[in-house]
Design brief:
The protein has 3 helices and 5 strands; from the N terminus they run ααβββββα. It has helices at 3-14, 18-37, 83-96; strands at residues 42-44, 48-55, 58-61, 68-71, 74-81.
Protein backbone atom coordinates (compact mmCIF):
# COMPACT_ATOMS: atom_id res chain seq x y z
CA UNK A 1 0.00 0.00 0.00
CA UNK A 2 1.34 3.41 -0.91
CA UNK A 3 0.46 6.91 0.36
CA UNK A 4 -2.30 7.48 -2.18
CA UNK A 5 -3.93 4.11 -1.44
CA UNK A 6 -3.74 4.73 2.33
CA UNK A 7 -5.26 8.19 1.89
CA UNK A 8 -8.12 6.73 -0.13
CA UNK A 9 -8.76 3.96 2.41
CA UNK A 10 -8.81 6.39 5.35
CA UNK A 11 -11.12 8.71 3.42
CA UNK A 12 -13.47 5.82 2.66
CA UNK A 13 -13.54 4.42 6.19
CA UNK A 14 -13.96 7.77 7.96
CA UNK A 15 -16.14 9.48 5.38
CA UNK A 16 -13.51 12.16 4.71
CA UNK A 17 -12.59 13.72 1.41
CA UNK A 18 -9.27 12.56 -0.07
CA UNK A 19 -7.89 16.04 0.63
CA UNK A 20 -8.86 15.90 4.32
CA UNK A 21 -7.49 12.37 4.69
CA UNK A 22 -4.20 13.46 3.08
CA UNK A 23 -4.02 16.41 5.48
CA UNK A 24 -4.67 14.06 8.42
CA UNK A 25 -1.85 11.73 7.33
CA UNK A 26 0.50 14.65 6.71
CA UNK A 27 -0.19 16.07 10.17
CA UNK A 28 0.30 12.69 11.79
CA UNK A 29 3.65 12.15 10.06
CA UNK A 30 4.80 15.67 11.00
CA UNK A 31 3.89 15.13 14.67
CA UNK A 32 5.63 11.76 14.71
CA UNK A 33 8.75 13.28 13.15
CA UNK A 34 8.83 16.09 15.69
CA UNK A 35 8.55 13.66 18.60
CA UNK A 36 11.32 11.46 17.25
CA UNK A 37 13.58 14.48 16.65
CA UNK A 38 13.09 15.39 20.32
CA UNK A 39 14.35 11.92 21.25
CA UNK A 40 10.96 10.63 22.34
CA UNK A 41 9.64 7.20 21.43
CA UNK A 42 6.27 6.54 19.81
CA UNK A 43 4.28 3.57 21.04
CA UNK A 44 1.06 2.35 19.43
CA UNK A 45 -0.94 -0.39 21.13
CA UNK A 46 -1.16 -3.56 19.01
CA UNK A 47 1.17 -2.02 16.42
CA UNK A 48 4.61 -1.33 17.89
CA UNK A 49 7.17 1.19 19.06
CA UNK A 50 9.36 3.59 17.07
CA UNK A 51 12.49 4.76 18.84
CA UNK A 52 15.63 6.72 17.97
CA UNK A 53 18.73 4.95 19.27
CA UNK A 54 22.38 5.91 19.23
CA UNK A 55 24.62 3.48 17.38
CA UNK A 56 28.14 3.60 18.79
CA UNK A 57 31.20 4.20 16.67
CA UNK A 58 32.75 1.03 15.36
CA UNK A 59 35.42 -0.23 13.00
CA UNK A 60 34.35 -1.86 9.77
CA UNK A 61 36.12 -3.27 6.74
CA UNK A 62 35.58 -2.40 3.09
CA UNK A 63 35.04 -5.87 1.53
CA UNK A 64 36.64 -4.84 -1.78
CA UNK A 65 39.81 -3.18 -0.51
CA UNK A 66 40.01 -4.88 2.92
CA UNK A 67 40.75 -1.42 4.31
CA UNK A 68 39.52 -0.84 7.87
CA UNK A 69 37.87 2.43 8.80
CA UNK A 70 36.04 4.01 11.71
CA UNK A 71 32.31 4.60 11.38
CA UNK A 72 31.28 7.55 13.60
CA UNK A 73 28.38 7.29 16.05
CA UNK A 74 25.00 7.90 14.49
CA UNK A 75 21.34 8.04 15.39
CA UNK A 76 19.13 5.35 13.86
CA UNK A 77 15.37 4.85 13.83
CA UNK A 78 14.25 1.48 15.13
CA UNK A 79 10.86 -0.22 15.12
CA UNK A 80 9.82 -3.06 17.39
CA UNK A 81 6.51 -4.62 16.36
CA UNK A 82 3.94 -5.41 19.05
CA UNK A 83 3.04 -9.04 19.67
CA UNK A 84 -0.39 -8.46 18.07
CA UNK A 85 1.23 -7.22 14.85
CA UNK A 86 3.70 -10.11 14.87
CA UNK A 87 0.77 -12.49 15.24
CA UNK A 88 -1.04 -10.93 12.28
CA UNK A 89 2.00 -11.25 10.02
CA UNK A 90 2.62 -14.85 11.11
CA UNK A 91 -1.01 -15.76 10.38
CA UNK A 92 -0.77 -14.07 6.97
CA UNK A 93 2.45 -15.91 6.09
CA UNK A 94 1.12 -19.31 7.16
CA UNK A 95 -2.11 -18.72 5.21
CA UNK A 96 -0.10 -18.18 2.00
CA UNK A 97 2.06 -21.30 2.39
Amino acid sequence: MNHKELTGEIARRLGYSDKDAAQLIGSMIAIMGEQLQEGKSLSFTDFGTFKVEKKLEHITVNPLTKQRFLVPPQLILTFKPADALKGMSENTISAHE
